[in-house]
Amino acid sequence: VRCDDDRAQRLRESGVQTLVGDLHDRRTLLPALDGAGSVYVAYPVAAGVATALANVASVIHELDSSPHMVINSHGTVDHNSPSGISREFALGEELMVDLGVNVTVLRIGAFFYENVLLAHSGAIRETGVFANCFGDARPAWISATDAADLCVTALLEPQIGRAGREAHRVADQRPEEDAAVLQIVDADRQGARRRARRHAVL
To answer: What is the dihedral of CA 134, 136, 138, 140, to 10 degrees?
Structure first.
């Protein structure tokens, strides 16, 4: 967890072991990743993701472990994106593959229903429009619960991906836009294995 707050307390009460950590402070990641069979990373849409992922990869290397890592990314990730954040996510994902991390990246190319109220209601009331990372595209819609289900499935059942550096188009595709709701980039070079050990959520 990022801070020891009420949410962390509720997790502990449900039986989850919590540790306070910071993806930008490598020292705090060692106890969180030690003994983990899988790692889930949900980084906010903000700068710093490449450094954060490099820290995770560095700790995995130091521990001489090979947990299956799932990264919750977004559909606009590309080295040539006009968004600096999307370019940095692309760099971070590429680093994981090049460093040999057993990683599955979920690029959810859909707009979250919940964001209309949680993130954009003020702008909509004031201007009638809101900015987003999809530009002129008309993205599909998804609920946060459905996105979470995809992430949990990838975390607990890594065999849904294929070995190698590939991007797979799955889920319902919008034919008029040729845009997938979900891309899975799987770089499990050691073969897909289910791990029933401890999971680290970062």
So the answer is: -10
Tokens coding 101: 């991390």
CA gyration radius, the chain: 17
**Please, what's the largest Cα pairwise distance for the chain?**
52
**Closest to 46 in 3D by CA, of 82, 20, 84, 79:** 84
The pLDDT of residue 201: 60
CA–CA separation, 33 vs 55, rounded Å? 11
**Rounded to the nearest 10 degrees, how much is the dihedral formed by the CA atoms of 178, 179, 182, 184?**
70
Q: pLDDT by residue (tens digit) across 149-187?
A: 988 888 888 776 543 333 333 333 333 343 445 566 554
pTM of the model: 0.76
What's the rounded Cα separation, in Å, for the pair 94 and 88? 10
Lowest mean pLDDT: which of 42-46, 63-67, 128-132, 160-164?
Answer: 160-164
Taking alpha carbons only, the member of 57, 179, 155, 180 closest to residue 104 is 155
